[in-house]
Amino acid sequence: MKRALISVTDKTNVVDFAQKLSDLGYEIISTGGTKKVLDASNIKTMSISEITHFPEILDGRVKTLHPNVHGGLLACRNLESHQKQILENKIDYIDLICVNLYEFKKTIEKNASFEDAIENIDIGGPSMLRSAAKNHKYVTVVTDFNDYDRVIDEIREYGDTLPKTRLELASKVFRLTASYDAMIAQYLTDKAGIENPEKITLTYDLKQQLRYGENPHQKASLYEGQYTSYSICHAKKIQGKELSYNNIQDANACLNIIKEFDEPCAVALKHMNPCAVAVADNILEAYEKAYNADPVSIYGGIVCFNRNVTKQLALILKKVFLEIIMAPSYDEDALEVLSKKSSCRILIVDMKSPFKEHTQITSINGGLLVQDVDDLMYLDEDFKVVTKKQPTEKEINDLILAMKVCKHVKSNAITVAKDNCVVGIGAGQMNRVGSAKIALEWAKSYGNVGCVLASDAFFPFDDTVKLAHEYGVTAIIQPGGSIRDEDSIKACDELGIAMVFTNMRHFKH
Fold it and tell me: Are residues 425 and 275 in contact, defined by beta-carbon separation less than 8 angstroms?
């Protein structure tokens, strides 16, 4: 008689699976809570203690770590030496195991205590899975209830699972245990406060296969990690088409900008760079300011709000072709209005809890780059006024807004702001004057003069200051640190412009 060992944390469909194995002639071995569930369903089972002839001890920490279990899993049926040792030690083969693991990920996502997290590190489960997967030539190993039907169908038709299936299931085991160990390693590394560990372990779960990548000839998929706020991976889609690779990139960039703001804020974005960003006393006013700052680029773009979307706002949004709308919530009548834009993706995004990501990871050929997230929040007491002219309170507010947005614009980056709205953006140019001219021209084209200007890095010459003056800029914020800072300061003093240094650069490549 063949034997199956079943011990699962996730008991979805396990009763049906065990019953079908029993009907196919398998003797069922089980442990703890799984055995109770199967016994309650009148499925005949043997306890693990009947196999090991040893009780479960240490509050269940030790129950399957025994030669009678691992010998039955690891024995090669074609080796006489193995067969002899199995007989001598009175061990029975185990032909199939169905095991999934303690829910470590869910435990730490609930902000459980360190002690609870440690107790949810599974030892026996991964050990059995690895033993069975190593010996997949003879043993079927199941970790996912989605594979139950396939396994049952093959046993019914062929008397056992096919070698190809056992190999695929074994590879799935090692992906599972690698992911599980990676989560534990990262958790303990964080708790220990270790920076730059000798190895970096990352794990993500497949969320969605995408139609294609940046272009139709590129394959792409979306993988999600641990739950965090301001995450497109964990957003809830209310309506609209599936998100594309480019949609996801843009949405992520948009969320990174809006998390900078506590006050009501509207962000319009396209191709990874903002079109306009505005703050106001209410979200409707914020959107109207952002839209008026760039009514051209917003077409076919993304808008994001950090406040509830009302019907009044939805009626205005309905007039513009948008790929995505994101907000923490929507009124029911607002969703009814937006439902008429059936192709537009409407997403609910968690914006309540703090943004928890501290590390940014970028792939390069043959490796990864890892750095801290650029999450500095600007406060005017940190500024150093370097000019004779002092910025006004209104200018300081606009300077802070401009710099918060500037650090999310591709370098070389220049942002121009007025009346709590970013009204001009110059992105990704090879020289700073080029970016400044684009931003200032755009602001001027919509009647915005008397603005402030932010730069993501220092001015190597005074040419940006002189250009800004031509467009009526009254105050500038920049990191400072150039060997020719005095040239820019002198130009500001001569032209009546206030300038502040932050002493912090914000390149975004």
Answer: yes
Tens of pLDDT, residue by residue over 271-293, are 999 999 999 999 999 999 999 99
Q: Are residues 186 and 119 in the same domain?
A: yes
Report d(CA 427, CA 94) in Å as an integer: 63
How many other CB atoms sit within 10 Å of the CB of residue 67?
Answer: 12
Strand spans (E) along 40-82: 46-47
pLDDT tier, 258 (very low <50, low <70, confident <90, very high otherwise): very high
Determine contact, residues 425/415, Cβ cutoff 8 Å.
yes
Helix H or strand E encompassing 70: helix 67-74
**326: which 2 tokens?**
């994101």
pTM of the model: 0.85
CATH number at residue 338: 3.40.140.20
- Catalytic residues, by residue number, are 134, 271
Let me know: does 501 contact 391? Beta carbons within 8 Å: no
Domain membership of residue 153 (yes or no) is yes
DSSP state at residue 89 = T
Q: Are residues 35 and 164 in the same domain?
A: yes
Residue 464 within any structural domain of the chain: yes
Q: How many CB atoms lie within 10 A of CB 482?
A: 16
Nearest to 356, CA basis, from 192, 233, 227: 227
Same domain, 43 and 167: yes
State the residue range of the domain holding 281: 236-348
Domain count, the chain: 3
